[in-house]
Write a structure and sequence with these properties.
The protein folds into three domains: about 170 residues, Reverse transcriptase/Diguanylate cyclase domain (Alpha-Beta Plaits), CATH 3.30.70.270; about 55 residues, 5' to 3' exonuclease, C-terminal subdomain (DNA polymerase, domain 1), CATH 1.10.150; about 160 residues, Dna Ligase, domain 1 (2-Layer Sandwich), CATH 3.30.1490. It has 16 helices and twelve strands. β5 and β6 form a beta hairpin. The structure holds magnesium ion. It holds the Pfam family IMS.
């Protein structure tokens, strides 16, 4: 597989950079230069750090933690509200540039793509020069920076793009794994969360190199067979997974977050779920889509993915219905085990704007739809801090009625 050529392109501190570009246009400060986060209302218990600047990271602030806790770490923190409609525009413009370079692009998240550049050497004889060209074009045309990882598989490309930031191109070819990846702490290995790395440390495994050389049979006792093989391969830079060219249309809309601190309580899960709902619902509404199916995915410490989904009686683009359904799915399927990954997906997308009449038709739906577009535009203008969802709307009545 060594003749493959894969790029992973990752926007540096995406939400912070995108908000910075927007604020700079209006003469505001450059959020990227100061300790800053994109979050929401610091007084709201539901508000979490959706993104952090590189200077904020130096204070130990992590994505997904409550804004109040981030403020304790850095009292001078600049907090910007989020503007999901703007992020969707930035994301699309970024992906449109990337897509010009290959027919095989995988949207990995709102700010990350994989490009399969294999066999393109006639058009792009120098892959490194091409990586620099993409990076510089994004900055020149859109005003934000990206990192590009260049490698012969997706894992190594992703690891490479995560090396020094921002605005850098890095390679991680197989002959560089030993020098560039093996000295890194084991928690830097993609998918190796805090709890796995803690368990690995208990075996005396501190670096990716030590993990790579550790006997798989002994890893199996600690991580189970799947986990052991997975981490053994990853530590050795082995990954055969293809770049999956999927359009958002086909797969719907989804968000997946790997958390740095395991999720152990329902409040943290719901907080993250609400942030994910906000992003994916805004993306879907920007496309004038509605979903018929809502799913949640989570992964426990044994590296097992669990998914649970529900078909709705009618398609929706209403944030509160999506959020309430997602919460219900978690209630039905989560049994309190610590989680390291949480995902939300909207699928079965309808895009013709035609809604079937239904016995479940809810007279408040039009009101709630109007409220959602108001919320989106308030977020657009003032950020999340201007939005007090919990006190604005009581959905419990409507949701209960829908389920009867
Ligand atoms: Mg990024």
């Amino acid at each position: 597989m060594s003749d493959r050529l894969i790029f992973h392109i990752d926007v540096n501190s995406a939400f912070v950079s995108w908000s910075a570009v927007e604020m700079l246009k209006n003469g505001g400060p450059d959020l990227r230069e100061v300790p800053s986060i994109v979050g929401g209302d610091p007084d709201s218990r539901r508000s979490i750090v959706a993104a952090k600047s590189i200077p904020a990271k130096k204070y130990g602030i992590v994505t997904g933690e409550p804004v109040s806790s981030a403020l304790r770490k850095c009292p001078n923190l600049v907090i910007a509200g989020s503007n999901f409609d703007w992020y969707v525009k930035c994301s699309r413009a970024f992906k449109a540039i990337c897509q010009e370079y290959t027919p095989t692009m995988q949207s990995f998240s709102i700010d990350e793509v994989f490009l399969d550049m294999s066999g393109m050497n006639l058009i792009y004889p120098d892959p490194i020069a091409t990586a620099y060209e993409i990076k510089d074009r994004v900055y020149k045309e859109l005003g934000f920076t990206v990192n590009v990882g260049v490698a012969s598989n997706k894992l190594c490309a992703k690891m490479a793009s995560d090396f020094e930031k921002p605005n850098k191109v890095h390679t991680l070819f197989s002959n560089e794994i030993e020098s560039k990846m093996w000295p890194l702490p084991v928690e830097d290995l993609f998918t190796c969360g805090k709890s796995t790395s803690a368990r690995l440390r208990s075996l005396g495994i501190f670096t990716i190199g030590e993990l790579a050389k550790y006997p798989v049979e002994q890893l199996t006792m600690l991580l189970g067979e799947r986990g052991a093989i997975h981490f053994h391969n990853y530590a050795n830079g082995i990954d055969d997974s293809p770049v999956l060219q999927e359009t958002e249309d086909a797969k719907g809309y989804s968000a997946e977050t790997t958390v740095e601190e395991d999720l152990v309580d329902i409040e943290s899960i719901n907080r993250l779920l609400l942030a994910q709902t906000d992003v994916v619902a805004a993306r879907m509404r920007a496309d004038e889509g509605k979903c018929r199916c809502i799913g949640v995915t989570f992964r426990n410490l044994d590296f097992v993915n669990k998914s649970h989904q529900k078909k709705l009686p009618e398609a929706t683009d209403v944030t509160d219905i999506i959020f309430e359904t997602a919460k219900q799915l978690i209630r039905e399927s989560w049994h309190g085990e610590p989680l390291r990954l949480l995902g939300l997906s909207l699928s079965d997308i309808e895009r013709d704007g035609f809604e079937q009449m239904s016995l479940f038709q809810d007279e408040n739906k039009e009101k709630r739809k109007a409220l959602d577009s108001t919320l989106d535009s308030i977020r657009g203008k003032f950020g999340n801090s201007a939005v007090q969802r919990a006190s604005t709307i009581d959905t419990s009545k409507n949701i209960n009625r829908r389920n009867q």
